[in-house]
Amino acid sequence: MNPAPNLILVGPMGAGKTCIGRRLAERFGLAFVDADQAIVDDVGSSISSIFENVGEAGFRVHEKRVLAQLLARHGQLISTGGGTVLDADNRQRLGERGFVVYLRVSVHSQLERLHRDKTRPLLQRADREDVLHAMAALRDPLYRSVADLTIDTDLYSPAEATAQLVVRLAAQWQIPDLPA
Ligand code: S3P
What we know:
Blueprint: E1 7-10, H1 17-28, E2 31-34, H2 35-43, H3 47-71, E3 76-79, H4 88-97, E4 99-104, H5 107-113, H6 128-146, E5 149-152, H7 158-172
Parallel strand pairs: 1-3, 1-4, 2-3, 4-5
Helix pairs in contact: 1-7, 2-3, 3-4, 5-6
Bound molecules: shikimate-3-phosphate.
């Protein structure tokens, strides 16, 4: 049993981190935290505006700072942004402060789930499919390197994926004692 103080979801855009994360948080009585939303609240502008103003590199600086702040707390389900694992310090902190679940998704499913998306700056281009394949090649080994548990979300609805995870987490993750 791994007694990590937080439950953390990693995986690419469109893997269902927010949707499955909300359900899992409710099931385990954890506070749901969307790391992207925490960045928006901290910086005071949208993800798109941050990318416009300071570029991806600037966004990653905000992402790293906010993640470190979030991970100082416990009893949370943290849904991370898809690029969080790119940074080695982030990967180390995730492993130290959470039980990490990798929600895998194929590029095919990502394209279906995200075809109308206008909120993700890295996907606002014509060669979306190529971009997603390149990201998957780079990031899949990184997600695997931090994951305590992996589930392929292509196979399941969010409700089914949640049900699967509840069973597997009950066997592998020791839920932290939360203050009353
Ligand atoms: C990103 C994923 C996004 C967000 C930003 C960059 C990425 O989060 O952090 O647009 O690099 O994959 P989601 O994975 O929650 O969409």
